[in-house]
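Why predict the complex rather than its parts? Because the way molecules touch one another can change local conformation, and only a joint prediction can capture that. The input here totals 921 residues.
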Amino acid sequence: MTTVTDDLDRVPPVTPPGRGRSVLQFLRNTWRGLTSMRTALILLFLLALASMPGALLPQWSLNQTRTREYIEANPTWGPIANALGLFEVFASPWYAAIYLSLFLSLVGCLLPRCWDFAKQLRAEPVRTPRNLARMPLHTVHPVDDEPQVVADRVETALRRKHWRVVRRTEPGGVHTVSAEKGYLREVGNLVFHFSLLGLLVAVAIGKLFGYEGSVITRVGAEFCSTNPSQYDNFRPGLTVDGTDMQPFCVDLKTFDAKYSDSGQPLDYSVGLSYQFGSDPATGVNTDHFDPYLLRVNEPLRMNGERLYLLGHGYAPEVQITFPDGQTRTASANFISNDPTLLSSGAIKITDPPGASLQDLTQRQLALRGLFAPTAFLHGEIMTSSYPAATKPGLAVAIYRGDLGLETGRSQSIYSIDENQVSTGKLKELERVNLYIGDTTTLDDGTKITFTGYRQWVSLQTSYDPGQTAALVFAITLLGGLMVSLTIKRRRVWFRVQTSSTVGSSSDGQSSSGGGTRVEVGGLARTDQAGYGSEFSGIAALVYPQGLPVAQDDDLHPQSSSSEHDDDGEER
Amino acid sequence: MAGFSDLAFQAAMAAYVVALICYGIEFAARRAMDPTQLEVASREHRLVRAGAGASEPLPADRPLHGRHIDERDIDDELDDDLDEGPRTQWGPLFGRAAVVLTVIAALVNAASVVTRGIAAGRLPLGNMYEFTSFLCLAATTCWLVVLAKSKERALGFFVMIPVAILAFVAGTVLWIQAGPVQPSLNSYWKWIHVTTVSASGSVLLVSGAASAMYLLRHRFDSKLLVARTDATATARLQASSLSRLPSLAALDKIAYRTAIVAFPVYTFAVIAGALWAEVAWGRYWGWDPKETVAFVSWVFYAGYLHARATSGWRGARAAWINVVGFAAIVFNLFFVNMVITGLHSYAGVG
Ligand code: HEM
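Output of the joint prediction:
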């Protein structure tokens, strides 16, 4: 077997344009071009390049608000980039075109290589080259034993070391031994590349059949995942319509957050009980709930469905006593992006009691402002000095009038519609700082009391049927890579002849003493790293008891320099 | 304990800078290898081989690797000859001083990392300062290993430049009080992830430095080739300190061998990161900016390994890819953490 697949560049042969065959020819050349190493390399760069906007520009899938802001801030460039899919790089058709070409190239490259490799496994090690002196590793040894004996010895020893060996004889009673080792390298390389394919398929399965949903739930409440509408935000896979989700219910019982003295969060957790498998909607098996302590980094895993605790926050609660004596308890989730959990939000009372349909739009109430878990006043400005609720304070502006819910404009649940304020439909009555138990009285006699707070948590459900497969392929990928990069495909050749026949030898090397002259050549593919010392050991197989020290001088200078280099390997 | 750690880091920073200066002095004072002689010899050698190869068929894989080996052999032989020639006295002196200083810097840096870990009561890789400090330590350690194996002290100058810069940035811009980390950062996968990322990153730093030198040397050699018939131009080129760079083959070897050690570790680090993301954020991969750039760097290194097996891409092109790959890693560490907001951005910028 003389063809070696080391250099995999396949340059399409230049062929004269034929008649009927030209289309076929063209297709074949295209295919060869696509599956060449060079194309693979260029596609790899394209892939890297095409990924960069995904990191540099805001992405719809990661942050819609920021993306919208970015487009608004760049009125000319923004819409163009949006049309090009630069804000949705990893779902864009051009990105898909690149990686699909790459994987097509990969398949086209792998299949012939598997075939070649299978052939190589059955083939014998290559014939001993005529001039072994030209090998990167080369030594000459005079030995006393008969050529036949030396060749036998080398052959058995190599076989014992699991080399693939073949014995040949050349004219003039010359024995040669060719041996090769390190086929596992190719196996590793193939496993690595096939794992890439497998990984792609696993990712695709997740994108097709998986989903994610996120929801904010109060501690003390129950959440059931039965259909997408239960979630604040649901991101279905391409084939998911929400009809066959595996339902589960969780009952959030307790919440606990730990902070360091300086206010750094250390840990937070939700004590919950959950039910999975039976249909919560039909009430089957509702009595059976299992307890679980849901913590950050410790999701609840239920047969493929996973529930995560992503964040938490406060929901201040007020009691409102209306002039007619009716009372209402109202609260809203406040959000924070501050380490002290100073949170902002708005409590809205959209249907005050006793209001007729007409004057509803005169009497809606809103409290907009800040909640501080550990309140601290700078003059009149309330801030928070610690994230735990040791001294909760509420600093709000109180509005009355029309909240503008019927305008059709979408409204943030964490704020009020500024438009309604600027048009005078919603009037600011007063600004107050309240601690728990404090009450403020409005001009019409309405009393508002800050009664306390509740905790909310943000939860995420994830379902990804390709995940386990992805992990398995990631492991085989890594294993294949390690095998491929550490194992060297290497060859060794021995030419054994009686010293007297050497006279005509091409390299002009003359050997002193001994009846037999053994020439050894070695070659490692890809990189000579580390082969030098192994080669010396193998060359020593020509002697009955290994390499005699005194014979060192006979080593070809080339090999000694190589050995020196080869020490610089494996770290 | 935290105070001691900071002090030790300051000391390490100073030692890195002084070591860098010493390497620089030695580099500038190194007696030039005669590059023309080298270049001509290696080219002639190659021609002879090519001629021989044409008349007598070699195994198919022979020309692929022959070139490198030939160059290396020639270079090494010439190197040895040159080493016997007279040299400036103080050059090697500074070189040895540089190595001693590097060892001291690494030891002090290690002490700083360990005491920081004790002070914070966790693995000292919880924020960018700690990460960069560890990176400097690991890169220096890797460099010392490479030095011990390759004896190419000239490379030290180029390894110490990024290390000294990183140490300086860590000590000034990134420094942050020792403290606990965000709950979501507190997962053992995270620790495995950051440890392997910084370890592989440091080895890739050495690899990138070797490739950067390769590119300098490559440009220099082609200039020499152009100037071969012009004695004054040749003399001028030989006076340049670039002529003291190690040979192309030696640099390529260092770059490749460090890269193949680091690449599987980096691959593992990315996988560990995905496992961590799965427990922390509910998905193993989400194209967060940090993940995206990690992927891009990985693809570059895959490209580097490919390029070294693709004819027409070995040599300078492959070296470029390696350098760009490291640039992507540095970009990920600094730009993505500090400028772009993503899930990772709360990894603690001081
Ligand atoms: C999907 C994108 C690809 C990636 C990420 C990738 C990655 C890699 C990596 C990291 C290596 C070095 C490790 C090893 O030797 O096992 C490698 C080697 C190799 N790849 Fe790929 N590859 C890809 C596609 C391809 C394609 C399309 C081809 C065929 C045209 C190919 C052919 C090869 C060959 C022949 C080697 C061995 C090189 C050597 O002997 O050093 N790869 N690949």
